Amino acid sequence: MDTNQDSYDLVIDEDRHTYKFVSEGPRGKIQKVIAFKPISGIEGYYNLSFGDWNEVMQKINDSVVTNNLDTVKVLATVAQAIDSFLAANPGAIIFASGRDPARNRLYRMSIQKYLGEIKNRFVLRGCCNKKWRPFKKGLDYDAFTLFRR
C-alpha cells in the first residue's frame, strides 16, 4: 500500500464496489477488474475478486496469468482500490484468498514488502493451518482479512 508506487488510473463504479483499469505491457492492453462483494451470512465482510475481465462471459477471470510484465503496478493499483473501498465503506472487512498457493505467495510477498505502511493504517490478519492470527512475516497463509484501524 505504498502511496508513492506507480499505479494505473481506476474507473470506479457509483457504489464503489467495482474498480476497473487497463494493464499495459507486451501482451497489449488488458482490462482488469477488482470487485468487492458482500459475503452472504457474514455482516460487514466483503470478498475481494480480482482478475482479467472476460467480455464474453461478462465476469472476472481470476485463473488467467496475464504476464504483462507490470505486476508491481497492478498490485499497487489493487492496493489503491482497497484503500478507496475501505474509505467509502467504514467498518468493512475485506477477505482475500488467491486461487492457488502460488497466488497466495505473491500476495504474501507483496504484503510483506509494504507491511510497515499497511500496519500503520490497517489491521491485517492471515489464516494459517485453519487459524486466524495477526499477519507475521515468514508464514504461509491461505487467506487474508484487512480493515481500517
Could you characterize what this model shows?
It is a single chain. This protein has 149 residues and is of the alpha+beta class. The chain has helices spanning 71-88, 101-113, 115-121; strands at residues 11-12, 18-25, 28-38, 45-54, 59-61, 93-96, 122-128, 131-134, 143-148. The protein has one domain. Helix content is 26%, strand content 37%. Strand 4 and strand 5 (59-61) form a beta hairpin.
Helix percentage:
25-40%
What is the average of the pLDDT values? 91
Overall, the morphology is globular
Distance between the termini: 15 Å
SS strand fraction: 35-45%
Most strands sheet:
9 strands, mixed
The run of helices and strands is EEEEEHEHHEEE
Radius of gyration: 15 Å
Number of domains: 1
Q: Which class do the helix and strand fractions yield?
A: alpha+beta
Beta-strand segment tally:
9
Task: Enumerate the spans where pLDDT stays under 50 for 5 or more consecutive residues.
Answer: none
